[in-house]
Amino acid sequence: MYDTTIPDHHRTAVTIAIAALVLGIAGDLLLRWIPWGVSALLWTVLFCAAARYCSGRVAWFPMICALLAATGILWRDSDTLVTLDVLLLLLFLPMIALEARGVRLAAAGLAEIAGGIIVTGAQMVIGLPQLIFRDLSWSRMPHVGGRSLGIAARGTLIAAPMLVIFGSLLASADPTFGRVLRDLLVFDPGEAVQHLIVTAIATVLCAGFLRSLALSGPMPRPSAPPALSLPAAETNFALALLNILFALFVAVQFRYFFGAAPAELAQYARRGFFELVWVVALIVPMLLMLEWLVTKERGFALFRGLAALQVTLVFIIAASAFHRMELYRDEYGLTQLRFYTTAFMIWLAVLLLWFVCTVLTGRRQRFAIGALATGVAAVVALHVINPDGIIVETNIERTRAGKRSFDDQYARMLSDDAAPMVFANRDVVGEKVFERFLWRQHSTDWRTWNVSRAKARELFLRIERHSPDRSPMTGSRIDSSVQ
User: Fold this and answer.
1) Would the N or C end of the chain have less CB density within 10 A of its end CB?
2) Cα 151–154–155 angle (5° rounding)?
3) Rounded Cα–Cα distance for residues 13 and 21 (Å)
4) Distance of CA 22 to the CA centre of its chain
5) Strand partners, 216
């Protein structure tokens, strides 16, 4: 949709084209280096600054959330946390254009937000051709004549001998400068093609997004067809049957809360936990869908009561799942899967509370912003908690208590977030784990710099200074000052 209210369409289009090219070049220079570190935050800052400069219609909440996600990549080394951060970036960066789509985030539903993201994503793909063939006024573009090209060519010929002489002298004076100069002059066709492809893809997507943000209008608001509605009586009956099923399960579970656990305790804990997490996870979208489809007629008050009862029963089921995880952890120790699944279930419990406070009280439009905010808060909390460090610490405590030997094979797969705990407990984790963290290879490029990896490197250098002979394990814990 073409927005005719913009005073100088051509000037805005030129600004978008230049900003997109800068973001494309920056993406090639920063994001091609893996693992991401400070590079992700720098590019996200540039992206948000370009969006703000090209248009005043930016949504601040998604922008702040995207910057928090990029900061998480700078902070932690865990692959799971980095994956969560990247997913948040992919979610919130397109959401910056929601205000341009006419979506008020504070009062928008999940379907409306999803529609805005889909529309923005489609415009990101098709935006560059529209920018070139529709928005730019080529008659107003400056022309580079033959005289200017001739001046540049003759000036290059005059400067060539001086560039060679002074370049050789400066390269001999500083080997680092010499390497930089050689890297600039040596042409690798394969490397050049990679640079061009990455730059082109990033430029196309950024140009499409910025055009969508600055030059596109609000999206249409399709209304839900009446045929999708459900009668309240039948919906209440179905919800009552589901409540009876949950109530029967809760009645059986109560005896386990008071010590009457089954004989096969470990098998009971292992088999039941993940199934119960699935139950809790599926309840949230199911209740949202039913509340959206049910007709708001006589009987809707009963629907709210049945939904509230179901939420209560689901909380008891979640408590049962949490109890099983405690049994599971005591028997087998803590792993990433067990930790993150528990954290996910806790977030779902918060969502259920928010569902009761908003949807069941007639304020459904507040649910989406709360779900997004609690999701971001949960990811930030995970970064603060440091799951890999907690996992190693928990398993070390179990080993010191004599419950089970330390699983060194699993610990070796953890990220540098666990390095301080590993280095501080060498006598428990064992020499293999200690050596694996001590001699783990890291990229030396500044773009991959990360707080956890830098801290692990600092601890490694400190240990090397105190133990240059690298004596074998003495059975004593490393001084806690290395943490």
Assistant:
1) N
2) 80
3) 12
4) 24
5) 2
Tell me how crowded residue 331 is: count the other CB atoms within 10 A of its CB.
Answer: 15
Q: Which residues of 163-197 are buried (b: 16+ CB within 10 A; e: fewer)?
A: eeeeeeeebeeeeeeeeeeeeeeeeeeeeeeeeee
Q: What pLDDT score does 472 carry? A: 43
Q: Cβ contacts of residue 237 below 8 Å, gap of 6+?
A: none
Query: Tokens 């608001």 label which residue?
Result: 221
CA atoms within 13 A on the CB side of 294: 26
Tokens of 6: 């913009």
- Identity (one letter) of the amino acid at 319? A
Tokens 């954290």: give the residue: 343
Please give the DSSP secondary-structure letter assigned to residue 480: G
Q: What is the DSSP letter of 406?
A: -
Strand segments, DSSP code E, in 212-253 are: none
* pLDDT tens for each residue of 201-212: 999 999 999 999
Distance (Å, whole) CA 294 – CA 289:
9
Tell me the DSSP string of 133-146.
Answer: III--GGGS----H
At residue 429's C-alpha, the angle toward residues 426 and 430, to 5°, is 75
Query: Tens of pLDDT along 314-327?
Result: 998 888 788 778 87
* CA distances from residue 297 to 226, 229, 231, 236 in whole angstroms, order as listed: 14, 11, 8, 12
Tracing tokens 């990101």 back to the chain, one arrives at: 124
Average pLDDT over residues 361-382: 94
- The Cα 98–Cα 436 span in angstroms is 46
Q: What is the pTM of this model?
A: 0.84
Angle formed at CA 444 by CA 443 and CA 450, multiple of 5 degrees = 75
CA-based torsion, 129, 135, 137, 142: positive or negative: negative
Say which DSSP state 105 is in. Answer: G
Which residues, 6 or more positions from 475, have their beta carbon under 8 angstroms from its beta carbon?
427
What pLDDT, on a 0 to 100 scale, did the predictor assign at position 337? 87
User: Measured between alpha carbons, how far is 20 from 259 in angstroms, rounded to an integer?
Assistant: 63
**Cα angle at 33 between 30 and 37, to 5 degrees?**
75
- The closest of 33, 27, 20 to 446, measured between CA atoms, is 33
pLDDT of residue 482: 37
| Selection from 302, 410, 315, 399 nearest residue 355 by Cα | 315
Which residues contact residue 221 at a Cβ distance below 8 angstroms, ignoring those fewer than 6 apart?
102, 112
Contact 469, 450 (CB under 8 A): no
3-state secondary structure of 299: coil
Quickly state the pLDDT bin for 476 (edges 50, 70, 90): very low
Residue 331: closest CA among 396, 260, 266, 391: 266
Residue pair 131/15 in contact (Cβ under 8 Å)? The answer is no
